[in-house]
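REVIEWER CHECKLIST
Item 1: Sequence provided? yes
Item 2: Single chain? yes
Item 3: Sequence as submitted:
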Amino acid sequence: MLYRLVYQPLVDASVLVLLIASVALHFALTGLALVFFGLEGFKTPSFSDAAWDVGPVTVSGRTAWIFGVTALLIVSMAWMFGRTLYGKALRATAFNRTGARLIGFSPVSAGLITFTAAALLGTLSGVLIGPIVTIYYDSGFVIGLKGFVAAIIGGLGSYPLTALGALAVGLLESFSSFWASSYKEVIVFTLVIPVLILLRSPRRTTSRRRNDDAGATTCADGARRAGRAGPALHCLGLPGRADELHRPGHAGGAGPGVCSSVAGQTSFGQAAFVGIGAYTTAVLSTQYALSPWLTLPLAIAIAGATAWLIGAITLRMSGHYLPLGTIAWGISLYYLFGTLPMLGGFGGINKIEPLAIAGFQFQDLGRFYYLV
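Item 4: Structure as written out by the authors:
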């Protein structure tokens, strides 16, 4: 049903458009999950109480189930995509939709089969991990992202490498929990960046050019075509009151607009720069009693320096790897902002002094609108 409603009308769209549609669908489903399931978590009974001692390690039955099902799925998918006609047709469609049409295989059918199979895999994963971790309304997002990190490590194509990548992510998460539990998520999701950069090899040059034509170009290429000297300037956030950020949404949307239309790149992490500007203003005005007006240029400078640093790293990627990298940055910075005590953790910072001129405060919604 989701495929027919959201993706089938976009069957001829670029990968970039499909990514944007997927992000929108994610937020819609997360909101519905919150309505249906609430904030409380659930933990299902274990479907196996068996346990075996293998040397110094105790292996539980549920762990054996997870490894066994994973191995079976790897073998099954390798056989399907390597030996069956449907599997080969799906791979052909992913590589060249026009060519798949010429040999009589519909991209709509390919998308429907793929989306349904992926949904079944996700459902099976949820059943297997339900007894191990507490499941919340947004658990699928976090767990799925870690699986996606593993898939990126596997080159988005190798099942055994993806399984090894998943083990590596799990080990990294475990050691991060031991050494720096507060920064566990930051470490795990930042791992995506160097992996994506490594995946950008010389053999992807032609693929990069093809993806650029579809709209997913690098910031540097887009700047050269547009004749702009400073494409990274779009990354500057809007400094202001942190508790008002959700209201002037049109101003926060300017960054992604400049990204796509002027610089020719797509970024899903622009909210992080809005947060950098807001946090700079909030910390300097509440903890150091600095005038909110003076925090504005400082916020712009800090956001600009951060944008330059992140851009210097991220713009080594191209094609659809670039928006994936910006998603990773956005998630990492989200968890980092919520972890730092000086930023108030996930509770945030309140009692921020509003901007004012001669006693006239820009605190009312109407006034704040004109300021923006």
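Item 5: Key structural point noted by reviewer: The chain has a mean pLDDT of 77.
Item 6: Recommendation: ____
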